[in-house]
Amino acid sequence: MTDGDGRTADQLVIFGITGDLARKMTFRALYRLERRALLNCPILGVASDDITVEALIERARDAIGEHEQIDAAVFDRLAGRLSYLHGDVTDAALYRALAEQIGTDRSTLFYLEMPPSLFAPIVENLGQAGLLTRSRVAIEKPFGYDLASARELNGRLRAVLDEDQILRVDHFLGKQPVLELEYLRFANTTLAELWDRRSIAEIHITMAENFGVEDRGKFYDAVGALRDVVQNHLLQVLALVAMEPPVGPGADDLNDKKAEVFRAMSALDPKHYVRGQYRGYADVAGVAAGSQTETFVAMRMEIENWRWAGVPIFLRAGKALPERVTEVRLFTHRVPALGFMPQREHADRNQIVLRIDPDPGMRLQLVAQGGDSWQNVHLDSSFAQDLGEPVLPYENLLHAGLIGDRQLFAREDAIEETWRIVQPLLDTPGEVHPYEPGSWGPAAVEELVRGRRSWQQPWLPDRA
Length: 464
Fold this sequence. Notes:
six-stranded parallel sheet, alpha/beta, 20% strand
């Protein structure tokens, strides 16, 4: 399906093709699209490295070979699409050379795998070179570092581009289980009838990484967990969990419903916010002395609308935690005490768990009789087993960008709303609590859920 201008790009230009994102994600995604016969245009890489196209092809081969068994015929087709142009992205001469090489009448997807500070200058230079009339531009998060900078960036982009020409990439929106949320919720009466405040007592979202900042100290120290994964990834996931059903198949139909969720959320209260920093973070190369940057956050939020009013939402995310896992967990209300059991007692709450990473899947936790009491039973689905090999996020995103489908990309109003929601936590961040690597964060995080369901051990692929 296409949405927006309906044009399929006849040229892909990747700024920053010699960088980490291309090595880790882009080349592999392009190879898999080529293998699926979904890549139908030339690819021009742009970067400052003075290398040959042959060297670029070898970089692509090495990057793809780290993850895929390379089919020579498929790779040769991909290599045949590649060309390369080097230069300084702040120099107008580069854009004159680019216009000469690809022409100004193409429907081009410009993919900016560049630092955010260069988004607006690159787009402005592309506009001055006459390269944007029939083109789209994809940019990677973060989209600003607070509400004011997000508005400034949007203003500069919109001075050159229409909104439907801008594709704001958040790779979580390309993940299979995130895409499945819309279908799971609205195509299944069993779930749809449970999915509101009458049945759901609270929602927990966890994004845990079992590694630290590693060699990204300089980058991460200027960002922190709140900006890195909450304002974008996790709030976008929450919107899909909480939204009303879209009224049509278009990107705006979907994004309208997500935006309604954000508009129904008050700005977050620093009193319901915990920040942490794992011990040893300060020793990472590139981290400033005495840094107060958080590597862990937890918070409570609510959505003040008819579907969710009164349902607390607890979110935690961090590095150097015990596991690498991302999940959404919904708890139902407790049933009355089981008077027909030998010992009158309350059964545990039912749970609905969507695991986003690793091994995406869904679990329903129900209650059954086990001897003289109740016990939990699990109904589990592994999406890979039940639905087949998943498409990688960047496969989805690159293909959507090339065909003009904007459903997988964030919209301007949603970006500004999410910054509005987190802005008080940026303005009044509060104390940073130390925590041990391998723990579930600082002890203060338990206060957030006092009187509610405790944080759960995440559902992992090899764990019952």
